[in-house]
């Protein structure tokens, strides 16, 4: 059936009808007084979502662009940085950092396992000369479904005193409690097609006063991603370059929806959906890739045995028009990932688990009792 496509991937995520209708409005001039009012409202609501009184800047980029802006604005070539690497995106920040001439020290963990905060503590406490300029962390490692312990790692960074913490919160912002001011996070990057419930195209960077101080001595060249230009324009309810007007209409509507739901309710919903998904998958006898204690609230990664991961994805798409994400790099063909991020509710999880049960039967899987997955998920949701 046409127009029944169901996104259950970590991004893009489903877009509410209210947001789609807002984006369908006729664009207006991005230098007009009316659009300045839109920017002012969005900026205030972004600060609410980020739980900060500091700057939250909008860029016409992907999440990777937001992270690159977060790196290049506050560091200089040769600066020593610690980069957590336990998945595809941690690996990416290693590559980005090296591309700009930073002195990178990786703190690694096996894919599917969380970063060890003690490894950061040891490096930071040993740095008596304060040569470490930044710690770069992926909070929710979407490639594996791992949620790294940002709060503890950040505390060790704060104890160091000099280093900035630069956070990839692309799939945790809006799905997990990230209280920027309470934790004292310096640079937090995110992207529109995740918890924000709008299509790809906007990136966001929250910046602390400590980070702005570092900006004054940072020497990596930048122009389009120069965050000072964005701050100067945002302070005047404007933008330094042409923004995606209709996408911002959508963002305005999405943020209104989020405020109506409330932060605590949003975070509780994502926890509930995560627990229900994991319970349903476990009841079907399928091994989860990430442990319960470090599970991302954005996606659940599954490493099936006795049935092919790509066959599951293909059958789900063909029979039910439900999109699941696959594995990346060495995990390609070995795992599939169920997204439960953004505009996702209880009904979506029950539908996905029911479709997964049917798919497993179609593929001849013998490891589950029919109905067990839906029953386990429904028990959590009930």
Defining key terms:
14 helices; 13 strands; Aspartate Aminotransferase, domain 1; globular; single chain; 2 domains; 15% strand; four-stranded mixed beta sheet; 382 residues; seven-stranded mixed beta sheet; alpha/beta; Aspartate Aminotransferase, domain 2
Structural summary, described in words:
The protein contains 14 helices and 13 strands. Helices cover 43% and strands 15% of the residues. The model has no long low-confidence stretch (mean pLDDT 97). The protein folds into two domains: 17-260, Type I PLP-dependent aspartate aminotransferase-like (Major domain) (Aspartate Aminotransferase, domain 2); 263-381, Aspartate Aminotransferase, domain 1 (Alpha-Beta Complex), CATH 3.90.1150.10. The protein has helices spanning 17-23, 33-50, 63-72, 88-99, 117-126, 150-160, 180-183, 209-215, 227-234, 245-261, 263-283, 309-320, 346-362, 372-381; strands at 6-8, 55-59, 80-85, 103-108, 132-138, 140-141, 146-147, 164-168, 187-191, 203-207, 299-302, 322-326, 336-339. Strand 6 (140-141) and strand 7 (146-147) form a beta hairpin. The protein has 382 residues and is an alpha/beta fold.
- Beta-strand residue fraction: 15-25%
Along the chain, the helix and strand elements come as EHHEHEHEHEEEHEHEEHHHHEHEEHH
Number of strands: 13
Low-confidence stretches: none
- Name of the CATH first level of the largest domain: Alpha Beta
CATH topology grouping of the largest domain = Aspartate Aminotransferase, domain 2
Query: How far apart are the termini?
Result: 30 Å
Order of neighbouring strands in the sheet with most strands: 2-10-9-8-5-3-4
